Amino acid sequence: MPLTNEQKKQYKSIGHHLKPVLIVSENGLTEGVQAELERALSDHELIKVQLRITERDDRRALMEELCKIGSCELVQSIGKMALIYRKNPKVNKQLSNVHRFQV
Known about the structure:
Layout: H1 5-15, E1 20-24, H2 31-44, E2 46-51, H3 56-70, E3 73-78, E4 81-85, H4 97-100
Parallel strand pairs: 1-2
Antiparallel strand pairs: 2-4, 3-4
């Protein structure tokens, strides 16, 4: 289910204060990156990802691939940073960025 504009606005304000949890380099979506993506989304629901790739089109393609693999939704993408979200049905309120920083 896609995020509403109101949800995106709320998640952007939360994401503004987050540091990148996942950094994707020129090596792309390795098994280690995919495992870390899965762990981070399960724990935090809302995470910031840094893409260390110079070409804009390559970054966009990689972000689409990342969202497809992680079954998550892109909230915002600015430059080399992206904010992604995936709802966790069994959320841990101490780890979830959405629940910890809810306004």
